[in-house]
Amino acid sequence: MLRAAGVGVGDEVVVPAFGNVEVAEAVVLAGALPVFADIDPLTYCLEAAAVEAVVTPRTAAVVAVHRFGRSADIERLHEIGRRHGLLVLEQGESEVPYGEVAQRRQRASYLDAKLKGVQTPDGGDGHTYQQYVVRVPGNGRPDRDAFARAVRAKGVECRVPVKTPVHRLPEYRRCVSLPETERAADETLALPVDAALTKRDMQRIVSACNALGGLLQPAF
Fold first, then answer.
1. How far apart (Å, rounded) are the C-alpha atoms in residues 19 and 12?
2. Residue-range domain boundaries for the chain
3. Is there a common fold for 12-91 and 98-216?
4. Are 93 and 66 in contact (CB under 8 A)?
5. What residue spans of 85-198 are helical by DSSP H?
6. Tens digit of pLDDT for each residue in 177-207?
């Protein structure tokens, strides 16, 4: 899509660093330079003001990636695109059948009500819960990773959604300030909300997480 739009050598494309490296790779394959902007801490998608802050005369496009079942603020990004003459592209997630989305929302609602000591996801704007991503507050990654190990030891599958932001990778390392991206990479953990989970499974998730309150004390 970038090539078809004429984006190439000498151009810059604004992309998120919180997520998969494939978006930055696509920009490089088109001959352009990926420029990283910070994310909204609630949606984990590009934050419009952060995007506008990195726009230069060389900026040709913005690639917004919808994340975990939440959508990027496309309306505001298109406003920025019109103001600066930029192409705005979207990368979506694979669609889930409506019935499965309803079941995931039901399980997410249960976790929202029962979980203690973690920050549950913001459910606004039609969240489809492709992943149920909580934050483990504390001193950063060691706390989140210790929490994840303890939960797995109790038989609950969980995963770190973004282990290394793209701007930390050697081939894309940039001296940029992305505080929300860094914080999200250190604190986030995806808990299961699959439609196949039983009520007992959900109770096990809550029990395993809520038993770990000692790991969740904030740093002072």
1. 19
2. 12-91, 98-216
3. no
4. yes
5. 98-114, 141-153, 179-187
6. 999 999 999 999 999 999 999 999 999 999 9
Task: Show contacts of 139-148: CB within 8 Å, 24+ apart.
Answer: 139/219, 140/186, 140/187, 141/185, 141/186, 141/187, 143/215, 143/216, 144/186, 144/187, 144/188, 144/189, 146/215, 147/189, 147/209, 147/212, 147/215, 147/216, 148/189
Give CA 24 to chain center in angstroms.
15
pLDDT of residue 138: 66
DSSP letter, residue 121:
P
CATH superfamily of this structure's domain 98-216? Aspartate Aminotransferase, domain 1 (3.90.1150.10)
Amino acid at the residue 1:
M
CATH 3.40.640.10 fits 12-91, yes or no: yes
The per-residue pLDDT for range 70-102, each reduced to its tens digit, is: 999 999 999 999 999 999 999 988 888 889 999
Contacts of 198 (CB under 8 A, 6+ apart): none
Give the pLDDT band of residue 212 (cuts 50, 70, 90). confident
Instruction: Please state the φ and ψ torsions of residue 199, each to the nearest 5 degrees.
Output: -60, -40
Q: Is the dihedral of CA 198, 199, 205, 208 positive or negative?
A: negative
Q: Which residues have CB under 8 Å from 9's CB, separation 6+?
A: 31, 32
Phi-psi region of 113 (alpha: psi -120 to 50; beta: other; left: phi over 0): alpha
pTM of the model: 0.91
How far out from the chain centre does Cα 34 lie? 18
Structure tokens at 120: 């549950």
Answer for the pair 46, 37: CB distance below 8 angstroms, yes or no.
yes
Please state, in angstroms and rounded to a whole number, the distance separating the CA atoms of residues 50 and 58: 17
